[in-house]
Fold this sequence. Notes:
Helices cover about 45% and strands about 10% of the residues. It is α+β, with helices and mostly antiparallel strands. The strands form two sheets. A five-stranded antiparallel sheet has the order 1-2-4-5-3, sandwiched between helices. A five-stranded antiparallel sheet has the order 6-7-9-10-8, sandwiched between helices.
Amino acid sequence: MRGMDFAHCAAELDALLGDGRSFDMTSRVLRIGGRRAKLWVVNGYADDAVLERMIAVWLAVPDFRGIGSLQDFLERYVSIADVTVETDRCRAVTAVFAGKTLLLIEGFDGVVLLDAKQFPLRAVEEPDSSRVLRGSHDGFGESLMRNAALLRRRVRSSALTLEPHQVGGRTGLDVAVCYMEGLADEALLAELRTKLAAIDVRSLSMSQESVAECLSPRQWYNPFPKIRYTERPDVAASCLMEGNVLLMMDNSSSAMILPTTVFSFAEEVNDYYFPPLIGSYLRLIRLAVLTMTLFITPMWYLLVNDPVHLPDALRFLLVEGDIAVPLILQLLLVEFIIDILKLASLNTPNALSNSFSMLGALILGDFAVRSRWLVPEVLVYMAFVAVANYAQHSYEMGYACKLCRIGLLLLIWLLGWWGFGLGVACILLLVATTRPLVGRGYLYPLLPFDGHALWALLHRRPISRENT
């Protein structure tokens, strides 16, 4: 925009911003101090009261004597706190679409960018997936600035750093790398900055998932999650104080917690709102339930398929009566039906939720047993698995266990005990070869071994001791 006359520059900005083409792009021609000026803002972002006050000040400017640059103009006639001078046309256009107001004044190189926006936001409320009995009941929203404020409210330290980045060609997604200076691993931060700078895609419209797929190593065959998420500011603040790094994105209510290991999924916010003994018990229960959801139906199917070697104490596991449908088909059928019910529940209006519950009870109830499609034992074990999946907060880990469980069932059906051993070996190999987004490794602190860190993960220490 350097060296261009006002009319030509205004016409180019009109074309780039879509003035006259898009109904939400608003422009206003002004006369400031005897010079031509033009203002652009997205109508849905504008804070009308602030802009009207500023325009009234500008219209009262007598002349530009003593004002040799836009910076001089800002110092005298702009009272908004967040205001900058921009000379790059592309960055200026992107800033307008992000909510800023652009002011072009005849006779100056560059434009003025004012932060006088007011985003459409929902109220701060507790996330549905991470509720607590005690503690705060607020949660992150879709505004990056509001989420940053929720962090600042809890961590009132100059060491808290919120490093801005912008990724994505067309979307220009705002990303913040949050960490505590002096606590976070500098090598991890350098690796994360390099990966963010290397993102070369035109659109990141799905926000956090788009960024995660761009940053994650290419392991399409590996279902285990490489990133942990949270929608709670208290969890995010606690992770920062432990030396972790947060990745927050605009238009997303979830923050990524880095680095991520398989053991970190045993932690949950309720562990810290109960006394240490109860928190440790809940954490161990969560680990045990996670293991049981992976192995309970394959072990039952394996034992039932080999009744000759089954001890008398376990004979109650056998299915009584004739089986019309093979057990492997029953188990897989119920696995798929549970997923269908989950998907259907997401799209069911609240007014029809009672009808949906009745249909679910009919599908997986007494009628299914009487029609001889399913045996009661299959329903009992699969009901336990379905409920136990909600004992840990990560949906990604739940589906990773589900896919491994289905693979284990198929291997047992094909190879029996050999299939079970092969399946367990494959699962361990998958976990061991999972490459996290950043960090020492997916099995840390087991590999490489760090006894102190491993003990801290397996039991909940008093908060006063953790902060010393």
